[in-house]
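Exercise 7.
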Amino acid sequence: MLDQLQESFGKIVRTLRNEGKITEGNIRDTLRLVRRSLLEADVNYKVVKEFIDNVQEKAIGVTVTKSLSPGQQVIKIFNDELARLLGEKQYHLKTASIPPTVILLAGLQGCGKTTFAAKLALLLKKQNHKPLLVPVDVYRPAAVRQLEILGEKIGVPVFSEKNKVVKRAAEAVNFARKQHLDTVIIDTAGRLHIDKEMMKELEALKKALKPQNILFVADGMTGQDAVNTAAAFNEKLGFDGIILTKMDSDTRGGAALSIVAVTGKPIMYIGTGEKPEHIEVFHPDRIANRILGMGDVVSLVEKVQASVDAEQAEKLEKKFLKQQFTLEDYLEQLKQIKKMGPLGDILEMIPGFSKLKSKNIKVDDRELTRAEVIIQSMTRQERQKPAIINGSRRKRIARGSGTKPSDVNRLLNQYWQLVKMSKQMSKMKLPGNLSAFRM
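Solution. The predicted structure, written as tokens, is:
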């Protein structure tokens, strides 16, 4: 996510950190690089100009604090300005005084509205809400069925009574009220471009339902096109917040850095993958940290807490410290990691990971899947007693998993490294509460 910006700003940050003195000359040179990086990332040129002017004004008159070097002080200015550009603070959904809260999703065809509707429903469900999904896209073939399948997958009811668009949505709200469901998420129809019919339908839904939240869904990969469409939607319909989808594939970041400034509306959520759980609440300050290569430890901890089974994690931890950690436990650990989302996105949250990326060290999610397949190709005895795996067994495991013996060797080496670490940790004086070592 935002790889191009991270790479460009990473180089700039590393250069600035070495500066013992900040002058107009080196500020000017730095800002020239920043301007080019932002424009190459498809950021709106007016937004770039304002960003550069603000940084220049604050950097030239900077007062260096005792705790920060001159270079670090300028990096802090970059961080503050990026966060301001992204919206400064997190925004929350508005709730109805009398349930249900109605959320209307709008956007062009193909922007990811239907998938996002399911992601939002799952997120709200995890927060102890009772959502209802309502497909009102009567034009796209199989649109209703797509949402029904997603609803079944995440365990959220879908109201898909056959009726005209506005009437169906109104009936869904009444149904939710009677069934004590507190949130209604309406997935509207899109078009390939903005047209009168689509806007007329959205205006009719807005008038009939009086939704607490109208959210504009934009494909983050389309850059300035997404920004221009958002501005047009806001002018004709008016919306409360922005959703950026497909951010896991958006290497440039132009939409994220432009859309708030152009529309005046906050980004509320981002889609970070294909699965229903791949959704993040948008925190401007945390995204600014990621762009500058400073990581995002708070989001990482939240992701771990949301994805990892605490009871299972405690069991694995105790087995690890008692040196009873088997390949079956290793397999369980891999499954827990996969639940957290794409490995690259997780590692981006770790401070300093940008340095590894600058050395072209690649992260491949397929390695996790390959490791799973290899362990699943072992016998129960081999998983519990890896020491018995000799050369012939390795060849058999490789054949059974469709991998090479070298892949099996690499996995076993990783496992034995963990075993070695467990021996070292078991020799340490451990506190009574093992949770000090838990993620």
